[in-house]
Amino acid sequence: MKVSIYRYNPETDREPSMKEYEVDTQGKDLMVLDILALVKEQDQSLAYRRSCREGVCGSDGMNMNGKNGLACITPLSQVAPGVLEGKKPLILRPLPGLPVIRDLVVDMGMFYNQYEKVQPYLQNNTPAPAIERLQSPEERAKIDGLYECILCACCSTSCPSFWWNPDKFLGPAALLQSYRFLADSRDNATEERLSKLDDPFSLFRCHGIMNCVSVCPKGLNPTRAIGHIRSMLLERGI
Amino acid sequence: MVTPVTSLGRNGLYDWLIQRVSAVIIGVYLIFMLGYLMTAGDLDFASWKAFMGSICMQIANTLLVIAVAAHTWVGLWGVTTDYLTSLTFGKAATGVRLIAQVAIALALVVYLLWGLVLIWGGA
Ligand code: SF4
Ligand code: SF4
Ligand code: FES
């Protein structure tokens, strides 16, 4: 099958280009990451990130035939119709909207900056109990669908609002994490957290486009989390 | 976290609220007008003028004009701050954005005043 990969080496290339490779899959429905390994056998100069190869570490987020996802858990048959059969090429590009360091490796700095801004850790200024802060099963259930995020950046880099204002709009991943702590019964920095979100950009640049939901490899729903934060802001603001 | 510059409500929550409320006003007005036009039968100038001249319609029209102006401002402010940024215009971005926003604001002020004169100007 044909594979077309975005190549860019800032030290030697004046501009990025797409390079074609021919890979023999023996008709198997391999994962995209396996294809990259096969290409790398042919061309050692190809750069990409990977680690766990099972959808846990979040390091191989990339754009496959136009859609963001994790290469390690995306089989060819799911990339696009016709790719597995070799009727269409597999097209791999880096995550959109972030600066490319080389080939499929992007600089995640802007993404992590926004993550840092939401203070993604428990804050509680009441005296710590002797053993631990307890949570009822119901309270614990509130952070299901939030804590599972692996920070792969597939969502934020598919969000047009994040493309245009990656420094001002927090993006779906950071907002999901913001709500993860707003919804946690053990955290009591709610007011401080909310007060940082009510400007026109940080949260309100979300226009409910829902690209984030359609790409999240962990099946999470940032749009819903953003909606919950908006309701909290609304209750607090009027 | 981000300081607002020239948004209407001065914070994201109020901009968001203004956008929803004005949308509801515009929507209700449109549906009402459609209903009126469908049920009013033969309209002539005199009955149209009497209808539009009633105090209820004057208030409704005023609300509509204000809602359209507010909705447009919040919406276009969003568009200008999405697309007219340093990503597209580099160093000139602030200037370009300012000019666009001033032009939009001027057009809306003219529209608003003109609308109010039409509604309340009598004659
Ligand atoms: S729903 Fe919001 S955060 Fe998600 S992609 Fe759309 S604009 Fe971005
Ligand atoms: S919400 Fe999903 S897509 Fe976004 S960073 Fe987390 S795991 Fe990745
Ligand atoms: S390699 Fe870890 S998520 Fe794909």
Describe it.
The complex is a heterodimer of chains A (238) and B (123). Chain A has 238 residues and is of the alpha+beta class. Chain A has 9 helices and 7 strands. Chain A has 2 domains: 1-103, Ubiquitin-like (UB roll); 107-235, Alpha-helical ferredoxin (Fumarate Reductase Iron-sulfur Protein, Chain B, domain 2), CATH 1.10.1060. Chain A is elongated and about 60 Å long. The mean pLDDT of chain A is 96. With 123 residues, chain B is mostly helical. In chain B, 80% of the residues lie in helices and 0% in strands. Chain B is built from 5 helices and no strands. The termini of chain B are far apart. The interface between A and B is medium-sized, with 21 and 18 residues. Bound molecules: iron/sulfur cluster (2 copies) and FE2/S2 (inorganic) cluster (FES).
Largest sheet of chain B: none
Spans of chain B of at least 5 consecutive residues whose pLDDT stays below 50 are: none
Q: Tally the helices of chain A.
A: 9
Mean pLDDT of chain B: 89
The proportion of residues in beta strands of chain B is under 5%
Give the fraction of residues assigned to helices of chain A: 25-40%
* Multimeric organization: heterodimer
Count every beta strand of chain B, where a strand is a DSSP E run of 2 or more residues: 0
Q: Which class best fits the helix and strand makeup of chain B? A: mainly alpha
Major sheet description of chain A: 5 strands, mixed
Ligand list: iron/sulfur cluster, FE2/S2 (inorganic) cluster
The coarse silhouette of chain B is elongated
How large is the count of helical segments of chain B? 5
Write down the Rg of chain A: 20 Å
β-strand number of chain A: 7
Question: What's the CATH class label of the largest domain in chain A?
Answer: Mainly Alpha
The average pLDDT of chain A is 96
Query: Uncertain runs of chain A with pLDDT below 50, 5 residues or more?
Result: none
User: What CATH architecture of the largest domain in chain A do you see?
Assistant: Orthogonal Bundle
Total individual domains of chain A: 2
Pfam families (chain A): Fer2_3, Fer4_17
Pathway (chain A): Carbohydrate metabolism; tricarboxylic acid cycle; fumarate from succinate (bacterial route): step 1/1
Enzyme class (chain A): oxidoreductase
Family (chain A): Belongs to the succinate dehydrogenase/fumarate reductase iron-sulfur protein family.
